[in-house]
Design a protein that fits this description.
- By secondary structure, this protein is an alpha+beta fold.
- It has a domain of 43 residues.
- It is 32% helix and 33% strand.
- It has two helices and four strands, in the order E-H-E-E-H-E.
- The longest helix is centred in the first third of the chain and has 12 residues.
- The radius of gyration is 11 Å and the shape is globular.
- The termini are far apart.
- This is Copper chaperone.
- Pfam families: HMA.
- GO terms for molecular function: metal ion binding.
- Keywords: Plasmid.
């Protein structure tokens, strides 16, 4: 398992955190996801052979938030 930490903007509350977490945990290969709107950070533990960082970033952006590059 690989742990990826991404800087995410646009999350403003616990509901935002839940939206991001639920979207990521629905992906095959994601073991866990944690979002922290105050830190502007999302941590994802995933199987990098199944889901890569680009897919994780795209899922966060599809949920309506911006991932810093």
């Amino acid at each position: 398992m690989k742990q990826t930490t991404l800087e995410v903007t646009g999350m403003a509350c616990d509901g935002c955190e839940a939206t991001v977490t639920d979207a990521l945990e629905a992906l095959e290969g994601v073991a866990s996801a944690t979002a922290d709107h105050e830190a502007g950070e999302v941590r994802v533990e995933h199987d990098e052979t199944t889901v890569d960082e680009i897919t994780v970033s795209g899922t966060i952006e599809d949920a309506g938030y911006d991932v810093a590059t």
